[in-house]
Amino acid sequence: MKKLIKVLVLLLSISLIFSSCSKSSRRINDLTIVQAFAIDENRGKTEIEIQYLNLFANSGSTDQLQGNITDVSESAGDNISSAVFNASKTVSEDIFFGQNKVIVFGLDYAQKNIDEGIEYLLKSYDSRPDVLVSIGIPNAKSIVKSKENGAKIPAENIYSLMKLGEENGHSPAVTVCDLLNLYNDETSDIYLPVLSAENDNAKCEGTAIFSEGKYAALLNESETFGFLLAKNKLRGGILTVEVANIGTVSVDISYSKANKYVEIKNEKPVFCIDISAKLVVTETGKTIKSILSESDYKNIQAACEKQMKKLCVSAVSKCFKNKSDPFMCARYLYMKNTGLYKEMKPVWKSNLEKIEIKTTVTSTLQRINNNTA
């Protein structure tokens, strides 16, 4: 085969050698190497789609692979395991999940059967801890079937979308390991990023939160930004605020850190979030001829801190109102007051909405160089 195909085969061979899966000893030509995995519910049946490598797809007569080098196969069954088994009837090689990057649950499946999906991730030998998990709307297969602007391996684009989405405040990036850790915690709740397929490309749509393993609510774009801020997952992103006498101001968050803990007030827990951030002004309503004064900078900084606090409180409040604790608030209570934790633990979810939320934001603001043309 051509040079590029040989290189890809060599790289995949090395990856398979170091994989813990028992099928790693098989030749690549004997394996259907999964890149993305979609799980939907339809009329009581579990439907799956697997995006897998096809190194001969769209290859031309040159030394380069042309376009998408994956195919998609679909199947159905009474549960995920049986659907995967049935999928093996439609592909010519054994299905290998050792290189899978993305698992997508359809919204209908997540609302009805998320417990079964997590049980599969927990018990299946095909499951890997570093795979990213998400929810697809209106279904999972639309995400796995998206072409991602003709990418050679669309699953890689979707994986990068979620990783970058978390850093910039668009959606969380949740691995199988993250999901199982929250799911197995008695008082905490899981959350997942939500994706849609728009113009044959995946797009971040927010965050799905759960309560005791059941779908609870969807955090929108701004709530997701505040959610990631409170979770200490935000690494960047743009904050837009309105400032008197200046207009619309856009500020880049170059750094943020959230310190979470619980205080006791009148024998009740107070969930505290202290946020520190570094901000950089990127665009203002004034032109370059209108030099910002020290007072202007102070007003911008105050507006940003107020907005960050508002977004954070809004996200945490929505979670608590929907009896969801993805912040592990109960753990912080345990560290602060074990006796009160034991007292509240049996009725923790029903008391979440009553918990006071206290947020502080401190920041530094980098000035614009007014001498820069």
List key phrases describing it.
alpha/beta, 10-stranded mixed beta sheet, 4-stranded mixed beta sheet, 373 residues
What's the structural blueprint in terms of helices and strands?
Blueprint: H1 3-17, E1 31-42, E2 45-53, E3 70-77, H2 80-87, E4 94-96, E5 102-106, H3 107-123, E6 132-137, H4 141-144, H5 154-168, E7 174-175, H6 176-183, E8 191-198, E9 201-211, E10 214-219, H7 221-230, E11 238-243, E12 247-265, E13 268-283, H8 294-321, H9 329-336, H10 338-344, H11 348-351, E14 356-366
Parallel strand pairs: 1-4, 1-5, 5-6, 6-8, 13-14
Antiparallel strand pairs: 1-2, 2-3, 6-7, 8-9, 9-10, 11-12, 12-13
Helix pairs in contact: 7-8, 9-10
Fold and architecture overview:
The chain is of the alpha/beta class and 373 residues long. The chain has 11 helices and 14 strands. The strands form 2 sheets. Strands 1, 2, 3, 4, 5, 6, 7, 8, 9 and 10 form a 10-stranded mixed beta sheet that branches. The chain has a 4-stranded mixed beta sheet with strand order 11-12-13-14. The termini are far apart. The N terminus is likely disordered.
So how many helices? 11
Helix- and strand-based class?
alpha/beta
- Helical fraction equals 25-40%
Counted beta strands: 14
Distance between the termini: 54 Å
Shape: flat
Low-confidence stretches: 1-25
Q: Please trace the helix and strand order, writing H or E for each element.
A: HEEEHEEHEHHEHEEEHEEEHHHHE
Biggest sheet character? 10 strands, mixed
Strand percent estimate: 25-35%
The overall pLDDT average reads: 87
C-alpha-based Rg, rounded: 24 Å
